[in-house]
Amino acid sequence: ISALSPFASSPVEMNFLTTTAWKEVYDNSPKIKFTVDAIKNMLEYQKERGDKPSSFVIYSALGNNILPYIKTALEQIVGFKQDILRESDDEDVTVLDEVEIIEGSADSDAESNRRELIQTQFNLGKIKVIIGTSTIREGMNLQGNSSTLFNLTPDWNSTDVDQIEGRIHRQ
Asked: Which residue from 10, 48, 84, 147 has the fewest beta carbons nearer than 10 Å?
């Protein structure tokens, strides 16, 4: 796990990090820094060429405690926006950002609906980055607008690697 970040899967709360914790995680985690910088560079390259910006998937089976810091780093450094879409039903209002995190199980209808909405908006290009855990390895089709998968913690099982790669590229 320390190959991902020295902050990943800390056995204690990360209260020792300051209010700019995202910056500390970014500066001290080479894999995360590379991922954020690569996304920024790819978007700048696409803009220079006049290409339509693509969307990105970041996969990490471990280190769920630092996923919010990766999201904030993308918002601060790359400039992704928050609160781009609001959708409401009879009971809940779902607010989506250009960077969304999908983790844990979809035990409730609301969470299942949220995931479907994220998938749809990602494939339409409104959500630019999905940061996902092993929960996105199967059952999510993200190939509609995706160009790059950043696999921060490759699985040892080649079948699992194929499953996550299949999220953005169908063979």
From this structure: 48
Tokens of 74: 């993308």
8-25-112 Cα angle (round to 5): 60
Dist CA 130 CA 142 (whole Å): 9
Question: Per the confidence metrics, is the pTM higher than 0.90?
Answer: no
152-163 residues labelled b (16+ CB within 10 A) or e (exposed)? bbebeeeeeeeb
Q: How far apart are CA 161 and CA 156, in angstroms?
A: 8
Cα separation, 64 vs 133, in Å, equals: 7
Which of these, 67, 128, 135, 53, lies nearest to 101 by C-alpha position? 67
Residue 79 CA to residue 77 CA, distance in Å, equals 6
Cβ count near 42 (within 10 Å):
17
